[in-house]
């Protein structure tokens, strides 16, 4: 601005002189800060504000501290210019931010104290926050856990995603039926994000591709038909025990003010504005079906919108310091979370070819060195496909590039495998047929240097089933990184009782950054003092959960009962139905028991929670069945406290934080070969809950760590499933199974017409998920759990050993593996 070096230096010195080095965190400074935010940010009088306003002021005060670290991290990383990983995901299930932030910043106690002085309680204010639910289930929560670990381990990383106006729907239960309500989570503002009006990019759609002469060469030029602006919203992600704070950048769609002078000149002013407003619909709503989005134009628009904005941002950052694109793979690793962001591959190709004018081979080589792809899918049929016509209409230039990639790939492939047309057509990126489709997974595999599964068995399934042809072609490309969860959120934030107990017995808090230390608990597993304290911590958590259940459902539950929990998305393969049928069986047994036998029954509180995709009929019937059965059981005087069944509505991250620590037993009972990993099990394990599980996904590895003798494992094994399915109708379901299904069919719980189609799925020839076959061993595992629970000493020992064996399942370990083996990045720790 016309200043010379000396003037600029003097100005900088003055600015720094005006600032404290860092914000102060003593109680008085925090109180003053909070009150200032009440007065100047929330604009309430500091003499009169309610809990919600206190929460708003408090969160702004915390946010100031986040921003401080976030700036420092950015400046430092920018200067160092290391290779960075960019984690692209269409879903992030962050949950609440407040408690997590103060814990990771290391200032929770200071805030609690400051608030006390002001007459508030931290926990009460924390309850004011709503969940950021920009995701469906496991895949989305995994993204959130990985961000926490990236920040904690000081990796130079960015998250990129979409800022949906409506997060995952709220589940309301009316007469036992699920209803969906919109989650307009931004209604009361969102203090955890920073709107970046100046960080915005134009994203283009539709139009045509034309050929033009450029320096004597024919080049393709895309003439787009629609332009939408992507505006950045930044969400700081603080690491624990470090000053690093990363950025999760989420894009929101806004109307563009470019290119539409014409519509303004037509005189139809109101319509012109209405049309522009439509642009915002792109980031309006998260698709609530977590497995299939096939053929939806809006979904494709969302994918491209987020990918295009992110890549423009990433390439701009690269170009700040570099001119030569050959250096791109040394500076940029792009991770695509499932196939949803796979258009990033094509977009990068387009940018390198059409905007940077690299030749095809160089562009392709660079692209393939940058991308890595993690798949979360187990079903070949569940892989994403996009109709060619749809893609060609929305992104004509991208379709050309996809065809070109495929043509070259097919030519190469023919050289290797010859004229095996079946195999060629299976591996082609384009699926031929009545409707031509782009197979997004094939595109992702062809253009990534590494493809990861999410557990050891998952890799096996990729090799045998999902990507068999590709694994045979490029065995060295396929790997797995077992998923993990962050112990910060899932123990420190959600289970403070257990957290302090662990730290006390290990004599250190270091396990919060180095979770392998949990193994140190093994030596105390039978220590009566630890056992007593351990049981007490569980009791307090059960009390909290029992109160929650009573408020929600009016059902009073006994703390002496075993709390048996299954919380996750409702899917047939996850077999909530098996659980409910097991509950019916238990109920039936109790009803038919003599009084003296009843005295031997281990009381149970069975808890089920989870959302069904709005269009998933069978899943919705499972929810209704759960309520119908609960109605019967919970009001039966013969049963009393021996058995209760409760459905927890609107399961989300913050509900999980309450439910998981309060559980004794948790169920992970998918038919073997259907759960790619499963991460809920890891959260329960860390919290000392025993697992009743099939040998599927990550439970196989959990067994290796804690020992099958400390779990209740049942069910058909992975390698038995194909033969069992083959047998079909000749597999006679056990009598007990037939009996409980008949009870449902015959209307014992009412709604017999409504449940008919659900019961039909259990007929022997249709029982794809093998509920009938697994029922007997399921009941045996349940009986074993009962026997173990009676011996409280033994049970507590198993519980301690579960936590002690949870070390491997920290997302810190997952991230270290990705960093080393997939992304090739090193930590970049800010020295102050
Ligand atoms: C899930 C899988 O179902 C889980 O087994 C796995 O633990 C997580 O991803 C994380 O890897 N998943 C999901 O939530 N949504 C999908 N569309 C596919 C898989």
From TrEMBL:
<keyword id="KW-0328">Glycosyltransferase</keyword>
<dbReference type="GO" id="GO:0030170">
    <property type="term" value="F:pyridoxal phosphate binding"/>
</dbReference>
<dbReference type="GO" id="GO:0005980">
    <property type="term" value="P:glycogen catabolic process"/>
</dbReference>
<dbReference type="GO" id="GO:0005737">
    <property type="term" value="C:cytoplasm"/>
</dbReference>
<keyword id="KW-0021">Allosteric enzyme</keyword>
<keyword id="KW-0808">Transferase</keyword>
<protein>
    <recommendedName>
        <fullName>Alpha-1,4 glucan phosphorylase</fullName>
        <ecNumber>2.4.1.1</ecNumber>
    </recommendedName>
</protein>
<keyword id="KW-0663">Pyridoxal phosphate</keyword>
<comment type="function">
    <text>Allosteric enzyme that catalyzes the rate-limiting step in glycogen catabolism, the phosphorolytic cleavage of glycogen to produce glucose-1-phosphate, and plays a central role in maintaining cellular and organismal glucose homeostasis.</text>
</comment>
<comment type="similarity">
    <text>Belongs to the glycogen phosphorylase family.</text>
</comment>
<dbReference type="GO" id="GO:0008184">
    <property type="term" value="F:glycogen phosphorylase activity"/>
</dbReference>
<keyword id="KW-0119">Carbohydrate metabolism</keyword>
